[in-house]
Amino acid sequence: MRLVSIIGLFALCLGALLRPTVSQATHVRAGEITTRRLPGSSLTYLITLTAYYDESPKGKGAADQATEAPFCFGDGTVQSVARSGRVYINGNTSSVNSYTVIHTYSGPGAYVIGTVLVNRNEGTLNLPPAADSENLSFYVSTTILINAALEVNSTPVMLNPPLDSARVGQKFCHNPAAFDVDGDSLAYRLYKPQEGISNSCRSRVIPAYLDPTQFSTARENGGAPPTFTIDPVTGDLCWDSPGQIGQFNFAFIIEEWRNGVLIGEIIRDMQVTVVDQPNKRPLIVGAEICVEAGTLIQQPITATDPDGQRVIIRAYGGPFNINSDGMPLPADLRIPPAYATLLNGGVALAQPATATFSWQTNCNQAREEPYDITLKVNDVPPGRGTASLVSFATLRIRLYAPSVKNLTARPTATIAGRAIQLNWTAYSCGRIATSGGSSDTTKLIIYRKEGCTPIDPQACITGLAASYGYQEIARISYTANSYIDTSSLKRGVSYSYRIVASNPGIGNNGGLSVVSTEACLELPLLAPVMTQVTVDSTNTQRGRITVRWTRPIGLSPGDLGAPYQYRLQRATGLAGTVFTNVASINTNIQPGIADTVYVDRGLNTTDSAYRYRVEFYYTGTNGQLTRLDVTDPASSVRLAATPAQRQVALSWQANTPWTNDNQTHDVYRSRSGPNGPFNKIAEVRVQGAQTYVFTDTGTDTFVADGNTSRQLTADSSYCYRVMTRGQYADPKLAGLKPIENYSQIICATPSDTTKPCSPNLGLDSLNCASLSSESLCGQTSFTNKLRWTLTSGPTCDPNVVGYKLYYGRYQQDKPAELASIPAPTTSFDHPNLTTVAGCYYVTAISKSGMESLPSNTVCNDACPAFVLPNVFTPNGDGKNDLFQPLKCPRFVESVALVVYNRYGSKVYEGTSPTLAWDGKTTSGADLPSGLYYYQVTIQYAMLDRDAPAQELKGWVQILREGVTMR
């Protein structure tokens, strides 16, 4: 939910604004509104207006009558609230007035709580006209965010009254001594005084407000321009420097942040009186300290006065449990006791002046945000009539949770196997969850890393940075003082442990402790250590792997109970976890006996990797074999090959307790098949990887066993194996002989993506112009004859083994494969065609199966012919009985005929593959002799699918009786 800004206009209240009945007199000098959520409800808040009134003879009457104040709660409701407290300060010239009310909201949201007090002080110069400033109302507001995720939340309280004096020409500073019991982060920014808009809950910045620098000419050191600023971190508000006597008001905002989210804002409107006198302001020195919770802080605070006058040192902050009116803070705004004191504070001290800040801290006061103690010093001028001047400084205290003490580690054993037991002194700074705050108690976070790397924990640096390489392995209650680690521990590896306490708290309270000191331990090597898993032969059924391991390092004959036994176990796959017994080997671990090697046979090393481990047993007091420990598993090396363009890419990996990184691996190749011989072709220095790679391009970089360099071809198969080298990281095992293991043998054929050159295609096509009227007469089947030649080029593969011929009947068609022709044939007859029309192209095919780009496309087109007579005799004598084409029509697909008599009436209409009209009507009746007109539409079998039909129009004479055509 976005926090509503309080800079804009306040939301209009729905009810009528309740206003106290007071005389039109001057009295309001400063004030702010604070809130705190009441326990047990996330929607009910205690809201307090703290107002500072003028109690001088001129303003006391109005202050007496200010018995009520109106509250606008930001949810459309208003209430007139009675004054609940009035405490006089500053020699009874001012008073701190409290108005407190409990209000319940209907639901989550952002609410702006405001109040309007009728009259400000008269004579405020930067609220012109100053003589009329009493007619300006006084308005302050606070914004709260109600959200269940925030748990308990209270706004900060301001423990330093906002009433001070300044001197012309000297830098003036004020600090509100804001304290947030929830430990939220506070940020400060300047604002402007506001006034209420009559009879509403709205407000506005006073239009006539003038920045205080407009009443200045120079800074204290004579520089220009003058400044009016607030430190966004400490809250020090400074005017450098006042240039005119008088009374001034200004405002600032305190922002409340939690986990990077703005959750509230408070406006304080305050007043300062500037005098012009020879008195100089005193000086006070702040400090910044960082201590472990539980430490007794004894911090001297020194102050001086340039005039040598006595000074009064005061301090404000949450650890004192004192509100701005000098009364104790409400119980739920107090930090856990014991509370701080300021020895020699509040009394006039001669020069040199020193007060001592004393605070016996405890665990429950630890938090992420620092405690800011606002230090204030007043000088004590002699005589009456000279105003006391002030200066401020900050004592910033970072209080962090203590570390876990006396952490130790020792080896132990559990049913689960090897283990390390941690012990430490019971943590004395635990915090129990409360119903209104965090839902968790203090937790101890246990971290572990391999290897022992001393680090120097820095005071005030809490937690354990990820850059140190530790991983969290457990989170347990602070009441525990031991922990057994059984997770994936390896023999011969040193483990470093550290603990950080995580303390719960409301808001930003609590936090992490400083990290503990290191407990480092190496598990003793009372178990064997794997040293080899090498593939001796590659076969789907008769594969063989040799497995080697050491005797238990650190175990001597006679230790524990003899005899001993190794149990070799095997799982399938690089990461296999289902182990079965392969062999049981009894031993007395005597020198000279080969009891730590085993050849495993009958394996499918072609398709699978295998993983091995060795269990070690001793004879217990009951005479039974008892497992002491088991080695970390080690797999065989698994090699993979990927064909590429005239090369083979190799990759290999293994899953072993030793590392094969930063070692030289050997690559072997056979050009004669899996039975060898194998030549070493490369030594690969692998760098920090678990999967290693090498690409064979045919080059042999290791010629000591003969130079086998030549280009890899796609018509040959090549076989490979690799040998890895490894080493244990543990210095105690680094002296073991080089750990060398062979992979299985794998074969691969390189690919070849080089294409042949495109052929050049030719076609025996018809020459229509040279055909006579009787050419192709009566021919219904045709053959297209194609010839091609293979072209060559420097980037083409000359190893052509065949061709593919593609054909499309129409020129609009995408040609489809027609035939495959083996080399060296370079011709093809395409027979049994009804027309010669069609298009062709041819491609060449290489030995590796690559197809060239298409050749040139060649096309043939038909030569149409169609001629009609002008007389026929359908008299049944078998001569000239049909109206049909003369001579030899060519490449006709269809003919449509329409016949009209001399009167224009249609007498016949028909379509046929060839024209053969018998002189009858469409219904089959004989037509009489006479002259008839026809229209013939002829569709030819042409190359163009969309070629237009030919139309012939003419006349024809029908002769029937006694006519014989010769």
Automatic annotation (TrEMBL):
<dbReference type="InterPro" id="IPR026341">
    <property type="entry name" value="T9SS_type_B"/>
</dbReference>
<feature type="signal peptide">
    <location>
        <begin position="1"/>
        <end position="25"/>
    </location>
</feature>
<protein>
    <submittedName>
        <fullName>T9SS type B sorting domain-containing protein</fullName>
    </submittedName>
</protein>
<keyword id="KW-0732">Signal</keyword>
<dbReference type="Pfam" id="PF13585">
    <property type="entry name" value="CHU_C"/>
</dbReference>
<dbReference type="InterPro" id="IPR013783">
    <property type="entry name" value="Ig-like_fold"/>
</dbReference>
